[in-house]
Structure formats: structure tokens, C-alpha cells
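Notebook p. 47: complex prediction with FE2/S2 (inorganic) cluster.
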Amino acid sequence: VRVRFQRPDGSEAACDVPAGLSLMEAALNNGVDEIIADCGGALSCATCHVYVDDGWMDRTGAPSEIEEEMLEFAVDRRPNSRLSCQIKLGEGLDGLSVALPQRQQ
Ligand code: FES
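Predicted complex, C-alpha cells below:
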């Protein structure tokens, strides 16, 4: 599964990862330092925040109720904000593109 992270400075990090990983794990495994993921995917930190690109929101789905609550702690939350540990990468998300926020906390 190919995923692309757009950095705040305009550069891009692209990586190919096995299906089944979360988007957060894809970032950590590929040196995308903007994703901090303090809680390791336990949905209790909001430091794995990303903005899902237009056109991908339908496919990533909506945040769960608990994710919604955690997103309240994300810096500069927007309508397309998601916590990347909650996005599981499957073939349907091949080509996914997300933007990274200026900061996580
Ligand atoms: Fe902590 Fe996603 S890694 S909420």
C-alpha cells in the first residue's frame, strides 16, 4: 500500500507498506518524524494527527466516538482531521495522501 505524507514545508514523504499496518505505523517505520504517537496507538494522545486529503475522506471513513473525543486535544483541528493510528491501511487505501500538521502538541 502506497501512502504519501505532505509536510508543512511542502515536501513529501512517500512510502510503501504492507496492508494491515496503521497509517501511524507506516509513518514511524519510514522516518516521518512529524508523527509522534506518544501512546503507541492506544487512542490516548492525539499526537498522531493528520489531515486527510480531499477525495480520501470517504474511503478512510469517519472517526469513532472515542477518536472524536481525542481529536479535541489535537492542535489546529480541521474537518478532515484524523488520528493516524486509527486508519488501518488496506488495498482500498492504496495511494492515500495526508497532510501533516505544523505541530502535534
Ligand atoms: Fe496516540 Fe494515535 S498514537 S492517539
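Notes: The chain has a mean pLDDT of 97. Residues 24, 37-39, 41-48, 70, 83, 85 surround FE2/S2 (inorganic) cluster (CB under 6 Å).
Next step: compare against the earlier run before touching the bench.
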